[in-house]
Amino acid sequence: MKKSLLIISLMAVALAACSKKEEPAVVAPAPVVEVAPAAPVAAPATDASAAASVAASAAADAAVAASTAVDAASTAASAASAAASAANK
């Protein structure tokens, strides 16, 4: 009898909690921050061509640097392998 009363009272509390409607939280709008442009707008034809040339040059430099890094990593891996083989002998 006591267990039944306890279960019924817990079910009543659970049902009462389920029917309770909660109000949605109010979201404050984000503050507006004005940012000055980083650089002036370039002229479309001549500056775009120059920028493309600079970008191509930078990409070529990056490719050379990546190739050099691959070669260095390969050399380091070979040296590490040789050192591990020497240590195991």
UniProtKB/TrEMBL annotation:
Keywords: Signal. The keyword Signal applies. Residues 1-16 form the signal peptide. PROSITE patterns: PROKAR_LIPOPROTEIN. This is H.8-like outer-membrane lipoprotein. It comes from Massilia eurypsychrophila.
